[in-house]
Amino acid sequence: MRRSETAPRWPGTVLPRAFFNRLATDVAPQLLNKILAATDGRAGRIVEVEAYAGAIDPAAHTYRGKTPRNATMFGPPGHLYVYFTYGMHWCCNCVCGPDGAGTGVLIRALEPLHGLEQMRAARPPQTRDRDLCRGPARLTQAMGITGAQDGVDLSGAHEGFAIVDDGVAPPADPAGGPRIGIRVGTHLPWRWSVPGNLYVSGPVTRR
């Protein structure tokens, strides 16, 4: 991966690799209120996430083992895993756990903070600001994330993107419930969001 000339532009501390080297179900709620920041100035606060637990999770891309498509998820923690879905959309995940675990966290929604003009230009005309990053496919489009970013190191390697702690704590009692947009593993309550945030992609129903 070619290094960027500058680090992603957002004040705070870039999350170290150790942050991601844990169970995805532990990492996911702790990612809430962190900043996904890009070198070009675009940045958004993470307000909704889902965990995917590899070989024990039938909804995970890695459930049936390693393939060329999902190889990044089996690599070191703290990298982006970007995949193409429905023949038209990109989605991005943070790889979690030790090498070979095949686990990660899907970033489902951001609250846009900076670089909104760039985000608007990347999204369809007439898109409301509330909808710029409200959903996994929307946020990748707004942030300029495609398959070219698969494998990007988020932990300070200056590869275009990082996840930054700017001092805003995760919610003490995040909204939680079943994951959405999947057909299997729907009983697992592995979706978390910032309560009351307008940029969350859909309602959260606790189980």
Automatic annotation (TrEMBL):
Transmembrane segments: none
Alphabetized UniProt keyword annotations: DNA damage, DNA repair, Glycosidase, Hydrolase
Pfam families per record: Pur_DNA_glyco (PF02245)
E.C. no: 3.2.2.-
An MF annotation (GO) of this entry: DNA binding
Top enzyme class: hydrolase
InterPro entries in the cross-refs: Formyl_transferase-like_C_sf, MPG, MPG_sf
Gene Ontology terms describing biological process: base-excision repair
Domain of life according to the entry: Bacteria
Coiled-coil positions: none
Family (UniProt): Belongs to the DNA glycosylase MPG family.
UniProt-recorded name of the protein: Putative 3-methyladenine DNA glycosylase
